[in-house]
Amino acid sequence: MRAKRFGTWLAALALVLTAVVASWVATPAGTVEADGGSLTGEVPRPGSIGLLVWSGGGLDELEAAASGGGCELRSLWTAEGGRLVGYIVGAPEAVNRSFLGWHPSRILDVNTPVILVCRPAGSSSGGGSSGGGGGSTSGAAWHTGAPSCPVFPSTNAWNTDISTAPVHPQSAEWIASVGLGGHMHPDFGTVWQGAPIGIPYVVVTGDVPLASVSFDYADESDPGPYPIPSDVPIEAGSDSHVLVVDDRTCTLYELFAAEQQAVNRWHAGSGAVFDLTSNALRPDSWTSADAAGLPIFPGLVRYDEVTAGAITHALRFTASRTQRAYLHPATHWASSTEDASVPPMGARFRMRASYDCSGYSTEVQVICDALKRYGMLLADNGSNWYLSGAPDPRWDDEALRDLRSIPGSAFEVVDTGQRLHTPANP
After folding, report:
1. Which residues contact 396 (CB under 8 A, 6 or more apart)?
2. Least CB-packed of 25, 118, 135, 272 within 10 Å?
3. 0.90 exceeded by the pTM?
4. Computed from CA positions of residues 61, 298, 271, 268, in that sequence, does the dihedral angle turn out positive or negative?
5. pLDDT at res. 22
């Protein structure tokens, strides 16, 4: 079955290469500015191909910039050593190996020529139902509101008030690395180009099918079965996260790059199971469904909490460059750079107490309060200052846009007292 699927992807790859060669023409001049970088050229329309020049961060940043210009990526291509290497969104790792083995060291260069292949209008890369605010079909017993289980004990790192914690000695360096002049970006909301914005989740409240799951990184993944409703929402985009909270057992199940192969049979890049009543971490050096080895669900901005007027936990965010190191509660790095001026996974950022959010929307003021009291944990490589949340049709996207006014200089890094884990100090 996997051999047949691999052959299908190779055939698709050949077709895309043919289209790229046929469409290799210069695009009109112009620069599209976006959070995390800029694309020089004309961003292609949905269903078309364009040649541009990228100056900015890594793969996730480029994908976000393209999306901001109206192009949901089907694939990305560039030249390396006289050959064309590409990344097909949602393809198995074996197909993307030549690109992934090279990324991100060269794509971080300034003025990188890239070919963008955009999905046709109305298509989605999520692979399945991806609604964040709906209920169940097919009789699955789940919802997307707040779980009744506590999300980890009050003593857990996610729930710890760090408003009075000391500033980390490397705070200035790490903030500068992510970008003093950059701005926060709400990576959640209602819908963009037909797909929900953010990382969806479900709370299981009744009997749902137990699914077997195979993994690319089985040695760092928790084996199944996983309770996965037949119509579970899957995050749109290449990460394809699946998040399930079992409210009856207080257990969190998370998958990265999830894909359903058959009834009650799934494949994923990696997966993790968390006991929500425990403070136990993943084993050191283990990933999870997130690059840092952290759970994803506890760090999401959720509509029910914001409308209730308080978020009582830390949040999750991304940066384009991270150190080959981690601080607990993170347990995994996802970088080759040992530059100490770049933040490690698990670094905890806090909004400065003096930063004034009073002019922002009510929703953003609630988020600001959480960032001042609980901060946010660096959890993955991605666009700088992108704050994670769950999609919901009730969000007011215009109100959330106030987050884009918050500069990197509004933050500092706190010292949580955790030892830095590096290759030399595992």
Report:
1. 361, 363
2. 25
3. no
4. negative
5. 35
